[in-house]
Amino acid sequence: MSIEKRMLARELKLIAARPGDIFKPMWFLMLVISMVPLALAPDSDLLAEIGSAMIWVATLLALLLNTEHLFQSDFSDGVLEQWLFLDRPLAWLVGLKLIAHWLFHVLPLILITPIAGLMLSVPTEVLFALLATLFVATPALTCFSGLGAALTLGSSRSGILGVLVMMPLFVPVVILAAGVLIRATDGSDTLPLMALLGAFSVVAATLVPIAVSAAIRLNIGGSN
Amino acid sequence: MLEFQFESIAAFVEMTPHGVYVWPIYGLGLLVIGGLTWLNARQHRQAIRMVQRNLEREESHES
Amino acid sequence: MGWRWFHQWGSPRWFYERAGRWQLVCGWLALILLVAGSIWGLGFAPVDYQQGNSYRIIYLHVPVAFLAQAMYAAMALCAVVLFVWKMKLADVAMQSIAVMGFAFTVLSLVSGAVWGKPTWGTYWVWDARLTSMLILAFLYLGAIGLRAAIQDPDQAGKACGILVLVGVVNLPIIKYSVEWWNTLHQPASLKLTEKPAMPASMWVPLLVNILGYYIAAAYLVLGSMRAIVLERERRATWVKELIGRA
Fold first, then answer.
1. A151-164: per-residue pLDDT in tens?
2. What is the ipTM of this complex?
3. C103 vs B40: CB contact, 8 Å cut-off?
4. Most buried residue, A126, A172, C13, C234, by CB count within 10 Å?
């Protein structure tokens, strides 16, 4: 079995051992969404107008919540150190880890957003645009928050520092996604913006793992 | 070219009607630069004192 | 000859001794320029026919806003020097610039907000420039916070370097996306109308102040770097000699 397959199998085993890790962010997302009408008003026109943006922000927060400790357990039980001795580039392994994280932790989150959309009476065509933007944008968000998690590995009292440090870098993604949602509401063409968003994700997914691997090397080098 | 734009010092301070906006900003600028200067000097003094304490401790060990 | 001018920056002692003199020169020069430029701008530059006297905030706001952005770029340059030449002084510079840059960013935000009150009628509008300045402030805070959270100074410096390099690549993207976002949501009515080019009597004092604030920033960064060098090198023989003699 190749290293890649074994890594994915290990991730699956870890999830099977602790399925709660997948459900907690989904739980968080649904709770935040239920708070919105309570804090605002149960007026469905108003909710429909701001609903898609609220869902976007809530999903972003839920994603940050579950990416915060992405490398922590692998760091403390020495798996990251083993990665250095494999005959694969570290950035490639980091990329695999990020892909696995996206598949098993972020994808479920995206898949429940339509339910949130129905609860906030978001129109169907906007709902499709919302799903599309989340699919295209979350790889970039996952990479950046993974970098935040890797940078704060060496700190015992980092708290949510990794999130705070990376949040400003999400600005272009959020703006582009919001642009798509606005155009979907107007009924105008969303394709150019989706293409830009996709380009951002592709570039982030190629370059950020290199930065993440540098951050990991730094923390392993520093601990000896 | 260089001509004082206000009729009196009072008018200069007043800057009708914008003195309340302009002057506090310049005060804040002074405060920031002055405060950072003070902080740097304090950090420098503390570093020197730390080295001096270390030196005294070493001397008392030797004797 | 050739690279000596560069390699001597690797010696903390050389830097500490020289920087004391540079700091003095920069401090006095900045004081003269800033006093002259500010008095000129506040009292002698002509009144703006559209904004009245409130425009005089420009003589602080614009230099500080320039600096806030330039200092992030300078920090990124230091990160490159740190990773390519492993020069520890570059890390010290990064640490100093992060704090000073944050201070200047906050100053430019506050002065922009106060300028907004008479111009736009409100302290805060989600104007493109104010918004990207706000994001810049968060980026600076990230660099400061990350360093504070990691105990080992070498490790903290390198982690900050990675963060700053990723940040500087993203900064133009953030800037352009915020500008685009602003045209998407807001009517142009809140924007300042395009003004004709400033007359020399207005921009000459501005130039004096821009120069003054840049030199003041150099003065502050040098001062903070000297203190940090002394702190980090406290066990080195040259520090003990220098302070023992004094």
1. 998 777 766 888 88
2. 0.89
3. no
4. A172
